[in-house]
UniProtKB/TrEMBL annotation, chains A, B, C:
This is N-succinylornithine carbamoyltransferase. Carbamoyl phosphate binds at S47, L48, R49, T50, W75, R110, H147, P148, L149, Q150, C272, L273, R300. Pfam families: OTCace (PF00185), OTCace_N (PF02729). Keywords: Amino-acid biosynthesis, Arginine biosynthesis, Transferase. The lineage of its organism: Bacteria, Pseudomonadati, Bacteroidota, Flavobacteriia, Flavobacteriales. The keyword Amino-acid biosynthesis applies. Transmembrane segments: none annotated. Belongs to the aspartate/ornithine carbamoyltransferase superfamily. SOTCase family. Catalyzes the transfer of the carbamoyl group from carbamoyl phosphate to the delta-amino group of N(2)-succinyl-L-ornithine to produce N(2)-succinyl-L-citrulline. Is essential for arginine biosynthesis. N(2)-succinyl-L-ornithine binds at E142, H176, K236, R276. It comes from the Bacteria. Residues 7-160 form the Aspartate/ornithine carbamoyltransferase carbamoyl-P binding domain.
């Protein structure tokens, strides 16, 4: 693997999942592979799981890790070409990406969307600029429109826990007080399209996601109908896509989308976390036997580790 | 040891101090013990000594260390049970503690008190929530009411420097412009109650500490009388406990509590640091031959190291 | 080497450059030297290159590294002697430096100037206080008036790329919207005075640097004349020195100092970065074949590594 910025970088998903599961059983099998190699993790936004799991993954492979909170530790970056930099940006991404490449063997980047400028967000200007200008491989730790490490952890989790050959997986929207990105939903949809699952997306009318992502996946506006006989229910809020970044006025029909034991039935409850209790999902579901959110979080380590391993094997 | 959140977790203090002193002489004797083990240090507040000494201690044991400033790096945590999380907290401690446990072998936490809500502070809701929900051992790097790593370093220091079998140790209040926690004083008192010392507490009337902490330790309101023939004088400010978190109007009698050479006499001067010069103590004392504050700081490493060692030895 | 706070700490520059180039060819040759040694890097200001290159350098030598952003992670420091610390500073540098020395084998410090108080900046009170009170060697990661790690990287770069025995090197001022320190210019001048180069400084009248730094180096106010036949053009803005820390009203003659392809000719373009594109230098120069800024940044690793190596060899 030359980089991991989106699901398109995966050539053989089943092989990748199999290797991740082997790493989970034997995390230190490749601890010589990353020796004298350095992962520089750049955060433009907050992170808990991604930060800790990716650091652990790199460490399991013997890599050294540097974590930088870019906004507070370094200089404000300019991403536009040809700008006269006489205002508040101090360094251009062209230099920053090339310079960091002098000190890193792999660069991982987290950069959330603006949720105000759709075209800018969809250009993925931060991560794509790193890809363009860095001379080392780039890993996406959640960008404006994609969270491929999360999606791979989700694929590992579903593979581990599936009790039938072709489980029914439902992605359900749930309410949230703030405007959230589409990245997790987008990458989960893309991942389900690569897997042998019976996949349905459900959300209130008006919360349609990008058609280029949804493609021919089934969209069912009736949540109860969508959840019927589900094996896995992946719950996630996203803000409006058409009316970009907006949270539509919450109506009773929206608050009714909160996942309850009754709605979940015998399905497994999945969520990328952090999750707002009693807004997205009830305490009872989260604390119940069908919640697999902690195992999903655990699989973040092996998702990151298999990606870093694959990139390390292709260095030089 | 299964955790170290308070002095109650110590079963054999003399043995612990002896082991710490052995580690001080031979810091790398156990550097295989922590191999492939990760300490995640979570800071909800500032730290210098605790941060650097605990990281060094873990590193001496061969552990990997991750440091997170939780407030700036991650998500705002909810600690209340049953809340509808539709406001400013993004993640519940139930998930956070379980998730971090997926990436850590030991979790260390620093979380200061509010100093405005006595009941909340005394519930030790942050550290006790980590103990309740995490699946790995918890170490207290100073909580609302206790600083047991500091107290253990202090015990090591007194043991090293005592010139008689049962030294006289005095804990003296000193003035400070801001409201400070009771944690250091509480843990020092608890530690002295476990040691074979002649122990006296002295402070102005009105600055009485929690009776459940002081128990039957001697309280002498006359500072001069208390300091007479002392071998060790541990100086520390704390804010009011009854009138919780308040700094009472400073009077001449309060400013007179500043420790001077004359008051100290031939006793050793101890302080946990940071210390305000010429408020808590004069320059002359701090820079003089009887100050042992730097050795106390040095012993923070071996205090943390013996605790981590003891916990590592009990990990499966 | 006992410390590296300024160029005066260099005894044999040619030997140091030669060793740095050997480390560049064989970065892990001394990875046992720093085993069980810890570098504590203290940042009072932002950093990208210095932070990443110094961490990599220390790691190449087998050292453990702790990075602290002092302002946000720790306590506000007092530097004045004899102060009554009843205001906003919580810890005196005397304690802080001695305490950090308990946990570090080498301490590296970045602390920019105020640019408002010339006497205070020139006293180098931060770095000189660390030198005075710490019990371990101090490395300057850019102080109020000096950036000796950058200057050494620059010396390595010029040595590597020079095509003649005595190349012509020009330091040229360039415009910038904000007030910048003199540190990089000062240390570059000092370094050129130690090297066998034909050196010229050029800047608009009124931007004269400290005479104690410039000494008898050639100053040519006509930029075109200065740049004629140059082999290396080092470009850098600095704020006014006489009218301390001020940016004089920008005039046409100032904006004309921006480095262009025409001005540069066949010379190599050098800059310490971060650089403001189309203010300091045109896109065309920075993206062109004569820019060596990325190689300069790469050499920051070996500049730091040779200094740390030299200090480690002199420990104990």
């Amino acid at each position: 693997m030359k980089k991991y910025t989106g699901l398109d970088d995966i050539t053989d998903l089943q092989e990748l999942i199999a290797q991740a599961r082997e790493l989970k059983n034997n995390p230190y099998a490749y601890e010589q592979l990353g020796k004298r190699k350095r992962l520089v993790m750049l955060f433009f936004n907050s992170s808990l799981r991604t930060r800790l799991s990716t650091e652990k993954a790199a460490s399991n492979l013997g890599m050294d890790v540097t974590v930088m909170n870019f906004n507070s530790d370094a200089w404000k970056l300019e991403f536009e070409d040809g700008t006269v930099m006489d205002a508040d940006t101090s360094e251009h991404i062209k230099e920053a990406a090339q310079v960091i490449s002098q000190y890193a063997d792999i660069i991982a980047v987290r950069a959330f969307p603006t949720l105000t400028d759709k075209a800018k967000d969809e250009s993925e200007y931060v991560i794509s600029s790193f890809v363009k200008y860095a001379s080392v491989p780039i890993v996406n730790m959640e960008s404006a429109t994609a969270h491929p490490l999360q999606a791979l952890a989700d694929a590992i989790t579903i593979t581990e826990l599936a009790k039938k050959k072709k489980p029914k997986v439902v992605l359900s929207w749930a309410p949230h007080p703030k405007a959230l990105p589409h990245a997790v939903a987008n990458s989960f949809i893309g991942m389900m399209q690569k897997m042998d699952v019976d996949f349905t997306i459900t959300h209130p009318k008006g919360y349609e996601l990008d058609k280029a992502v949804v493609k021919d996946s089934v969209v069912e506006y009736d949540q109860d109908a969508a959840l019927k006989d589900a094996d896995f229910v992946y719950v996630k809020n996203w803000s409006n896509y058409e009316n970009y970044g907006k949270v539509l006025a919450t109506t009773d029909s929206h608050t009714s989308w909160t996942i309850t034991d009754e709605k979940l039935g015998e399905a497994r409850f999945m969520h990328c976390l952090p999750v707002r209790r009693n807004v997205i999902v009830t305490d009872s579901v989260l604390d119940g036997k069908n919640s697999v959110v902690i195992e999903q979080a655990n699989n973040r380590t092996y998702s990151a580790q298999v990606i870093l391993k694959s990139i390390l094997e292709n260095l030089n």
